[in-house]
């Protein structure tokens, strides 16, 4: 279990931003051999957002970050750590975080870095930021998940093109407000050795074996599905057990939004009524690292969180990676 911190580090604000362009299942079924019925039944997805060529990941991220700062009531100059979780950075270098720093007007003495743990990226970034804030060396962090997955899609591959979308979500972390019990309670991250080939983009990095034409998501869907359920269940079980909690103690679960059937499997495992699981995969598809902060922001705005509520954030992704965090709202 992670070391208790004094004061607790809490989520002080949330924000999100998605491109305006909606791509529906019906539109996709005019491009590839699929149907709204197939996609919805197998994944729960109805539509996703697609960024235009002029909408950068940095711009999506900055907009989400701006909303989160306003929600927290903080000025950009008060942020001293920025982590952008993304596996679709605008450029190999500099980091997307450095582009967002300039766009948001963060100060020079702010540490700015990208983190890639694919769809688990936001939970990884949250845990890293929490640890750095708990060290006392940083006071306020902006943690953003932002993706332009549409740039990694083979639009002729019906097995993957129906699943993903673009978007961004953000949280501001800092010392919990006095008189509240709010704070991150615990987190656990992991990665399953030997599973890289199940979900990857085989080209586009520095590997000489990877021609540009292979810069598309390749996936063994059925196997990823099984590991996803296993990873999310195991990390949830460990987090609850070592904190003396059970599924019944959770007021809200915000799972990675990849597939409604995976989310249902988790709900069943936790024996939780469906109302306690937040779902927006129907409207965004899988937005990778943006998925949890985008869902968290929507959950909050929909009044699904009250002060004192216990929440679980839980994700899986390429790696294969997985991670979970317990947060008292
Ligand atoms: N439209 C219509 N048919 C499709 C299709 C589509 N978009 N995609 C695949 N099919 C077909 C397949 O070709 C196959 O046809 P066949 O039986 O004639 O060979 C059939 O549908 C069943 O395919 P299968 O891959 O077995 O379906 P599935 O039930 O496993 O569902 C996924 C496929 C991708 C939806 C599912 O495996 C999944 O969600 N896996 C997890 C993926 C994930 O979450 N990735 C991100 C991780 S962060």
Verbal overview:
- The chain has helices spanning 25-28, 36-43, 57-72, 96-104, 121-134, 158-161, 221-242, 260-270, 281-284, 291-301; strands at residues 9-17, 22-24, 47-49, 81-85, 111-115, 141-148, 166-175, 183-191, 199-200, 218-219, 252-255, 310-317, 321-328.
- It has a five-stranded mixed beta sheet, sandwiched between helices.
- The chain is an alpha/beta fold and 329 residues long.
- It has two domains: 9-175, 3-Layer(aba) Sandwich (Peroxisomal Thiolase, Chain A, domain 1), CATH 3.40.47.10; 183-328, Thiolase/Chalcone synthase (Peroxisomal Thiolase, Chain A, domain 1, 3-Layer(aba) Sandwich), CATH 3.40.47.
- The protein contains ten helices and 13 strands.
- The protein binds coenzyme A.
- Coenzyme A binds at residues 34, 38-39, 42-43, 119, 158-159, 162, 199, 219, 221-222, 224-225, 228, 258-259, 286, 316-317.
Number of strands: 13
Report the total helices.
10
The CATH topology of the largest domain comes to Peroxisomal Thiolase, Chain A, domain 1
How much helix, percentage-wise, in residues? Answer: 25-40%
**List of distinct ligands in this structure:** coenzyme A
Percent strand: 15-25%
What radius of gyration results from the CA coordinates?
19 Å
CATH architectural arrangement of the largest domain: 3-Layer(aba) Sandwich
Order of helices and strands: EEHHEHEHEHEHEEEEHEHHHEE
Helix/strand-derived class? Answer: alpha/beta
Query: Which shape, going by the Cα principal axes?
Result: globular
Domain unit count: 2
Overall pLDDT: 95
List the keywords.
single chain; four-stranded mixed sheet; Peroxisomal Thiolase, Chain A, domain 1; 2 domains; five-stranded mixed sheet; alpha/beta; 329 residues; 10 helices; binds coenzyme A; 23% strand; 13 strands
């Amino acid at each position: 279990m992670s070391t208790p911190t004094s004061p607790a580090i809490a989520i002080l604000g949330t924000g999100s931003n998605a491109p305006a362009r909606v791509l529906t299942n019906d539109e996709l079924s005019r491009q590839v051999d699929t149907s709204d019925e197939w996609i919805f039944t197998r994944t729960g997805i109805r539509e996703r957002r697609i960024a235009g060529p002029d909408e950068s990941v940095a711009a999506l991220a900055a907009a989400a970050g701006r909303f989160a700062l306003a929600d927290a009531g903080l000025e950009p100059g008060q942020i001293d750590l920025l982590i952008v979780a993304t596996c679709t950075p605008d450029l190999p270098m500099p980091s997307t975080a450095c582009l967002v720093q300039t766009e948001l007007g963060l100060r020079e003495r702010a540490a700015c870095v990208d983190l890639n743990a694919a769809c688990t990226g936001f939970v990884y970034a949250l845990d890293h930021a929490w640890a750095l804030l708990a060290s006392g060396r940083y006071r306020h962090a902006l943690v953003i998940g932002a993706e332009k997955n549409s740039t990694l899609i083979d639009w002729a591959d019906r097995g993957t093109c129906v699943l993903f979308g673009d978007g961004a979500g953000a949280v501001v972390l800092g010392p919990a407000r006095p008189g509240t019990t709010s704070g991150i309670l615990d987190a656990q991250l992991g990665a399953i050795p030997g599973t890289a080939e199940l979900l990857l983009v085989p080209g586009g990095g520095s590997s000489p074996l990877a021609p540009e034409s292979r810069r598309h998501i390749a996936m063994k869907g059925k196997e990823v599905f099984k590991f996803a359920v296993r990873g999310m269940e195991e990390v949830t079980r460990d987090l609850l057990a070592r904190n003396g909690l059970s599924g019944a103690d959770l007021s809200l679960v915000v799972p990675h939004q990849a597939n409604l059937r995976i989310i249902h499997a988790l709900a069943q495992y936790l024996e939780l009524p469906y109302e306690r699981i937040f779902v927006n995969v129907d409207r965004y598809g899988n937005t990778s690292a943006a998925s949890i902060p985008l869902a968290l922001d929507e959950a909050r705005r929909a009044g699904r969180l009250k002060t004192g509520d216990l929440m679980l954030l839980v994700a899986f992704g390429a790696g294969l990676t997985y991670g979970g965090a317990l947060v008292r709202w």
